[in-house]
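--- STAGE predict ---
source: upstream dedup step, 1 unique chain passed
mode: sequence only
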Amino acid sequence: MISLTFFVLAGAATKYKYEQKKRRGVAEAKRGARGYGNVFGNGIIAMICAVLEGVYGGGYFLAGFLGAMACATADTAGGEIGRLSKIPPVLITTFETVEPGTEGGITVLGEVAELGIAGVIGLLAWVLGMQSGSFSGINLFLAIAAAGFIGANIDSVLGATCETHLSWWGNNQTNLWATVSGCLSSVAIYFLMS
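--- STAGE serialize ---
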C-alpha cells in the first residue's frame, strides 16, 4: 500500500498542471514517464529494507523502509508541486536565487509540499497499523514525516553539488543516496525512540 501510494502521488503530482510546467520549461520529459533507472534509484533501498524486515524483523528495517518511501514520495511529488511556485527558487546550498528547474533549487511551496507528502506516508503507516515498540501512532507519523523531509532535502543538496559538478553523477544516483538518507534518518529516530 505504501509503494502504491508513492506511484499514485508521484504520478498525480507530475501530471498536475503539466502544460503550465511545460510552458515554464520545468516539466519532466516524456510527459513524466520515468525509466527503470529512476524506479531503481527511488525504490531499491525500500525494497531491501522490506525484505530484511520480513526475514529478520526487529523494527529497524521497517523504519528504514518507511523513511526511504517517505523520502522518495516527498522528493518526487513535492518537487513537482514546487515547480509551480510563483516565487523563484533559491539554491539550497547558498540561498541564491536560481532559474526554475535548477538542480538543488528549492521553494517554500516545494518545501511545504515535501513535508506534507512525507506526512501522508507517515499517516498511512499509522493507519495501516505498522509499528514496532514505541515506533507507533503519533511517534511513527512524526518520525516518518521528519525522515522523508530530511531525505528530500538531502536530494536537493546532492542535486546542487554532486549532480551539478560531477559529470558521471546523475539524477538516479541522487535519488538513490537521498533514499539512503531518508532510510538512515528514520532508523536513527527509531533507535532514539527504543
